[in-house]
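Is tryptophan placement plausible here? Inputs below.
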Amino acid sequence: MTRERSDGETPDGETAGELATDGGTVDDVALDPWGSSTVSDYRKLFEQFGIEQFDEILDSVPDAHYLMRRGVIFGHRDYRPVVDAMVNDEPFAALSGFMPTGDPHIGHKLVFDEIIWHQQQGGDAYGLIADLEAHSARGLSWDEIDEHARNYILSLLALGFDPEEGELYRQSTNREVQDLAFELGIEANFSEFAAIYDFDGETDVSHMQSVVTQMADILYPQLDEPKPTVIPVGPDQDPHVRLARDLAARVSFFGVTEAYASFEADPAERELIGEAYDTLSERHPEETIRCSDAATHLENEREPGATDVEATTLDTAITLLKEAGKEPLRPRTRIVVRNATDEAFEALIEAVEGEKRVYDAHIDTFDLTKTEAEQIAREVEIENGGYGFLPPSSIYHRFMTGLTGGKMSSSIPASHISLLDDPDTGYDKVKSATTGGRETAEKQRELGGEPDECPVYELYAYLLAHDDDELAKQVYDECANGERLCGDCKEQAARLMEQFLENHQEKRDEWADKLDELDIEFDSDRR
Ligand code: TRP
Ligand code: SF4
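Reply from A.M.:
I modeled the complex. Tokens:
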């Protein structure tokens, strides 16, 4: 059978995910939560934004989900505490949110599956409807929102979310989230929103309120008690995750840093001082290293090629060290007061064991590691009425390529398969999808197809092959070595899609009858 690329074009923009964790080529990446979610080069996200590669922790994840094994989940921020909690049977949570702007589609299914998997691994699971965000940032009416919200929830349930164990909510009706949002808003200001989100004088206030609401969503699982929490999202949501991690620290009673002497230094200065300390104590293991010694050492380290910033940092570090003079340089863990009351500070002083020095608004401890100090500070915070939030973690999945090439978009029906599509329609959409095949069957047998460029292969890997790695691999290998032709391959995929949709919609129908039993409203009286 002869099959050709249905539109004769190479899909532009984001290409079908090469299933190794580094893919793509092209230019600059911007992460915009309200922009068009495409990423031209996932590798840039590691360098530019400090997202960590999922690969590096994959082996430590118990019974890793197939989306993890296949590189669809490609990155994370600080996921390790969640993995540790999973392994050690300690409490952890997973939460994600959905803007009810249209029908849930197979791209959303990735996130549904991620929440459900964490629930099955023993985590507290949360799924929320970002109705305030949809109303303020996307201008949807409450009637539309109600209808879409219902559809998202039904699909999440149909895919296996257990509402008895987990929690489903709408932003607009969750009073605790609103209250927390208000508190977090005290720590954020407009300039910062402008820098992070490109907001300007025209941005409406309710849109900004939806941002603090999302911050509250992200920290909500920790309101009862702090626990590692993962937010499974697309990388476009990373700015939100970073801000939430920041706010979690800003509302805390105490902060923990490493220091070398009694004075305050910023992180860059601290690094220089630390290097000086390490070098000098290696050279003179028996001697007391004094601040003035480090100053002299750093004086000699001046480099002609240094940038202005580096030179300034070095200057201030040297000045600080000179001023401290004969004071011994000695590594210590410092706990500084952020929002603590006097009583809480007193309690902290009590709680810190071993050698310590107490100052006006910080304590230097000499026998505690950073992690131990953080633990103690958090306990004191909680005992004294604080939140004690842990910085939330995240995992990031690749965006699915549209069936027509280019990006998968809710506004282009042929580019995606809605979870509400008729099974027949699903079948047809797969059959008419763009492929990574060659112009003729002969060429395909000779050269093999290009599964890495093929939205149909992606369907197998992201959804249709489900847990069956053998099938995913078989499709890939047979395609790449020319044994598989697109016609048959699509027929197989189309049938699997048809079955999936049939089955999914049956389960949706079952849940539809039980929806009243759940504690969630789908008729908002807002207007
Ligand atoms: N902003 C998210 C989106 O665009 C929706 C959302 C709201 C969310 N609150 C959240 C996602 C909390 C993750 C966690 O779809
Ligand atoms: Fe064709 Fe299937 Fe290969 Fe895609 S994966 S190029 S549809 S044979």
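Short version: The chain has three domains: 43-252+391-397, 255-383, 413-517.
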